[in-house]
Design brief:
single chain; about 30% strand; alpha/beta
Length: about 120
């Protein structure tokens, strides 16, 4: 029997409301609260995503290890090209380095955190 249940994943950033809006659009989740210091998105059937303001936040420099990513989020998608186009419209960017482009695409959220859109198999 587990002793803990994952409640949420927290990401440091400079602008919590911006990231909450981005991930709400990406996942279909609901922005549960949003302040200049902290914001949260509740995702149906999954853990929440929380965004915490950090003064002088410096995003990772993926894939360069100068400031490593330390963690990233993976998302299943049914149609990779459509999902990528939507994420880019929501504010993501696409780095040149794509290690497994036939099965997933690496994007950067508006704060620079890497995330992967992965074809559901």
């Amino acid at each position: 029997m587990p002793i803990a249940e994952l409640l949420a994943v927290n990401l440091d950033c400079a602008n919590p409301p911006e990231l909450a809006e981005f991930y709400s659009k990406l996942t279909g989740g609901e922005v549960a609260y949003s302040t200049d210091e902290y914001a949260g998105v509740q995702i149906a059937g999954g853990p929440a995503l929380y965004f915490q303001k950090v003064a002088d936040h410096r995003p990772p420099t993926w894939p360069d290890a100068e400031r490593p990513q330390q963690s990233h989020l993976d998302f299943y998608v049914d149609n990779l090209p459509d999902a990528e186009a939507a994420a880019l419209e929501f504010g993501a960017s696409r780095p040149d380095f794509q290690p497994n482009a036939d099965k997933c695409v690496v994007l950067l959220d508006p704060a620079g955190h890497p995330l992967c859109l992965c074809v559901r198999s």
